[in-house]
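quick q for whoever's on today - can somebody do inverse folding on this one?? i tried earlier but teh output was garbage lol. tokens:
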């Protein structure tokens, strides 16, 4: 499970064999795979909703109060989505694959949430933006991580149940063949 604008992994829970089970379901019963993916995404929905609620309703800084691409009033500025899967990541000899990602998709929301994570600003404007956001909402991540940490155990449990259900469905499908 991952979260954020450019999602870092935030949990150590591992579910072994899910990718293989989903691959098997895709080959044997594509409709069952779609249903399993839908169940996994539904399990993560409370977290997606919590991240969306954690984003402020009004522009966090006066300079973000516009409808431009980076503005708070732009269409989709505070959009938060759920994504199934993603690219595998290798850390040493361990290869992991994100099962569910919660993404702050809007540019304004991403800026609010993650500004200052990698640097304190390369320009005077960037430094002022980060300083203003830090004073307003703390350090990066301001919305996604706190929402995730508060609900992580519940979400992990629901996603694990959905994964187990998908694996059971794959096994039953294989047994019938």
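ok took a stab at it. sequence:
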């Amino acid at each position: 499970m991952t979260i954020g604008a450019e999602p870092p992994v935030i949990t150590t829970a591992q579910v072994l064999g899910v990718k293989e089970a989903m691959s098997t379901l895709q080959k044997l019963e594509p409709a069952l795979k779609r249903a399993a993916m839908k169940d996994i995404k539904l399990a993560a929905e409370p977290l997606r909703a919590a991240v969306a609620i954690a984003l402020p309703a009004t522009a966090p800084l006066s300079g973000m109060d516009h409808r431009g691409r980076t503005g708070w009033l732009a269409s989709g500025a505070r959009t938060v989505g759920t994504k199934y899967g993603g690219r595998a990541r290798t850390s040493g000899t361990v290869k992991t694959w994100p099962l569910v990602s919660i993404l702050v998709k809007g540019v304004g929301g991403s800026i609010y949430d993650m500004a200052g994570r990698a640097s304190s600003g390369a320009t005077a404007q960037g430094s002022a933006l980060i300083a203003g956001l830090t004073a307003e909402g703390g350090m990066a991540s301001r919305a996604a991580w706190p929402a995730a940490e508060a609900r992580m155990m519940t979400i992990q449990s629901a996603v694990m149940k959905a994964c187990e259900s998908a694996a059971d469905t794959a096994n039953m499908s294989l047994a019938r063949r």
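fwiw The chain has one domain: 2-168. also Residues 2-168 form one domain. so keep that in mind when u check it
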